[in-house]
């Protein structure tokens, strides 16, 4: 019916983030990040931000899967699967342990030099996120995180050091991971990981979010400008958590709400791509008196630092109903959400919607007309290790197969310009949301459980051999 092979040069790979797998949280001069003071949680229990390292607590990111000491072995396994690229982040706290130093930490820089060299040894392109839920803790405790304009300078200094140092080793960059998560501004976890904001009693959370996000967008635009000056061949993207947004029914008020929810969630990427705030949001901010600190210079920077592509994660879609909240009363997007009865869910209640990915690829293309990059997709699941050590994860294969198939239709039938596909957690790692190890995404199993027990030994799941075949056939064999 259509060509299922992806275009030549398509970047098949996998994605992770430094704090979720490196471990070595205080090794070679690394400082603590917000992730280092987050306890372990579960489906029932939220992770807790403890402000500092408390004795007796389980902080799963401290050890992660000790990728810091296992990266050679792990990259070799990625190469065996045929990866063309590998997405990870640079831990800000390895380079600037407190975030506000003048000079970077050489040992941290050296680690990423070695890591990128190891990737290139196998022809794997690093794809690098600069800000992925791992803000230096010191910037939170001393400056209040991204509510403070000073963070723009600290971040751009960090970005500049990375761009210069890895000028010839890294071509693909992203600035802020899932910057739009904070549209759920009542969620303390998301505000802390996105923006390093820990709410005080009585604080206006929505106001804080809009101001912090503005500073982040300015910092991102500055980074894009600096990066392009250092190497004009860099491709620097934004990164959003994309969910296709559906009205619960064809009732016009549901449709209007779905449109409003999309506007309130994707204004972040509107600014990244268009270099200016969309009209509806400007009106809203004015009406509410939010984002008071914006200068003419900021607006100029936003115009000059637009992104080259849109990186996005896709896990699930989102359905909204106007009998919960109408378009004009909408503030926190979570208030509009309802379960979509047509969709099955994962054990963590995330709705599974492969067609939503095709819908999203088309929607993003229509809205932005930019190259797209699926930099996360996947399904957290419990895996069972058989007596002989094998792991039969057909549910994972099934999830990925359906999503890749929809992605292929979007490219071959709908003309979407797609750079690559990097499923999330290509090797088991610490979950961002719950801190669990047993919420697994990997093609590679890591022997470690939620309590932190295990040998850290790596082994290949059935999905490993399946994905190897997918890459080898460039997507023709699913
Ligand atoms: P975990 C919330 C909703 C969707 C994606 O998530 C999210 C989050 C934050 O938890 O995060 C992204 O590990 C993120 C990764 C994260 C991955 O999705 O909660 O970029 O760091 O691990 C999966 O199952």
Automatic annotation (TrEMBL):
User: Keyword set for this entry?
Assistant: Glycosidase, Hydrolase
Superkingdom:
Bacteria
Q: InterPro entries recorded for this chain?
A: GH, GH_1_N_CS, Glyco_hydro_1, Glyco_hydro_1_AS
Q: Name one GO biological process term.
A: carbohydrate catabolic process
Sample GO molecular function, one term = 6-phospho-beta-glucosidase activity
Q: Does the keyword Hydrolase apply?
A: yes
- Give the PROSITE patterns listed for this entry: GLYCOSYL_HYDROL_F1_1, GLYCOSYL_HYDROL_F1_2
Q: So where does this one cross the membrane?
A: none
Keyword field contains Repressor: no
| Group of enzyme by EC | hydrolase
SUPFAM superfamilies from the UniProt entry: (Trans)glycosidases (SSF51445)
Enzyme Commission numbers on file: 3.2.1.86
Entry's Gene Ontology cellular component terms: cytosol
Active site feature = 376 (nucleophile)
Q: Which PANTHER family match?
A: ARYL-PHOSPHO-BETA-D-GLUCOSIDASE BGLA, GLYCOSYL HYDROLASE
Which family does the UniProt entry place this protein in? Belongs to the glycosyl hydrolase 1 family.
Q: What is this protein called?
A: 6-phospho-beta-glucosidase
In the record, what lineage is assigned to the organism producing the protein? Bacteria, Bacillati, Bacillota, Bacilli, Lactobacillales
């Amino acid at each position: 019916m259509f060509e299922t092979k992806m275009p030549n040069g398509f970047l098949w790979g996998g994605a992770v983030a430094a704090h979720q797998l490196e471990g070595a949280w205080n090794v070679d001069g690394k400082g603590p990040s917000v992730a280092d003071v987050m306890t372990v949680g579960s489906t029932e229990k939220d992770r807790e931000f403890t402000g500092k390292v408390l004795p007796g607590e389980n902080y799963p990111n401290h050890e992660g899967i000790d990728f810091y000491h296992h990266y050679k072995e792990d990259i070799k396994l990625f190469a065996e699967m045929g990866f063309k690229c590998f997405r990870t982040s640079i831990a800000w706290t390895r380079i600037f342990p407190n975030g506000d130093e003048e000079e970077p930490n050489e040992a941290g820089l050296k680690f990423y030099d070695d890591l990128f060299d190891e990737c290139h040894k196998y022809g794997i392109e690093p794809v690098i996120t600069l800000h992925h839920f791992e803000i230096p803790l010191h910037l939170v405790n001393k400056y209040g995180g991204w509510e403070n304009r000073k963070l723009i300078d600290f971040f751009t200094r960090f970005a500049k050091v990375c761009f210069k140092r890895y000028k010839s080793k890294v071509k693909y960059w992203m600035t802020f991971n899932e910057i739009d998560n904070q549209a759920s501004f009542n969620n303390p976890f998301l505000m802390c990981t996105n923006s390093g904001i820990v709410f005080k009693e009585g604080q206006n959370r929505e106001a804080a979010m809009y101001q912090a996000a503005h500073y982040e967008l300015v910092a991102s635009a500055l980074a894009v400008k600096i990066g392009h000056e250092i190497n004009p061949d860099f491709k620097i993207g934004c990164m959003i958590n994309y969910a296709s947004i559906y009205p619960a029914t064809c009732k016009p008020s549901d449709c209007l709400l779905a449109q409003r929810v999309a506007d309130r969630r994707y204004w972040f990427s509107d600014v990244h791509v268009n270099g200016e705030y969309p009209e509806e949001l400007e009106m809203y901010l004015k009406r509410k008196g939010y984002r008071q600190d914006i200068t003419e210079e900021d607006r100029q920077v936003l115009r000059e630092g637009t992104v080259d592509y849109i990186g996005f994660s896709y896990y699930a879609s989102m359905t909204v109903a106007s009998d919960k909240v109408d378009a004009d009363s909408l503030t926190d997007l979570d208030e509009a959400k309802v379960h979509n009865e047509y969709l099955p869910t994962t054990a963590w209640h995330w709705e599974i919607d492969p067609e939503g990915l095709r819908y999203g690829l088309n929607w993003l293309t229509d809205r932005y007309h930019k190259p797209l990059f699926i930099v996360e997709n996947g399904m957290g699941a419990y895996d069972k290790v058989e007596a002989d050590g094998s792991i039969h994860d057909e549910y994972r294969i099934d999830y990925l197969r359906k999503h890749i198939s929809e992605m292929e239709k979007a490219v071959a039938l709908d003309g979407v310009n797609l750079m690559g596909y990097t499923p999330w957690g290509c090797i088991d790692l610490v979950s961002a949301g719950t801190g669990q190890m047993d919420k697994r995404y990997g093609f590679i199993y890591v022997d470690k459980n939620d309590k932190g027990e295990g040998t850290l030994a790596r082994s290949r799941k059935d999905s490993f051999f399946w994905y190897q075949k997918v890459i080898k056939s460039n997507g023709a064999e699913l």
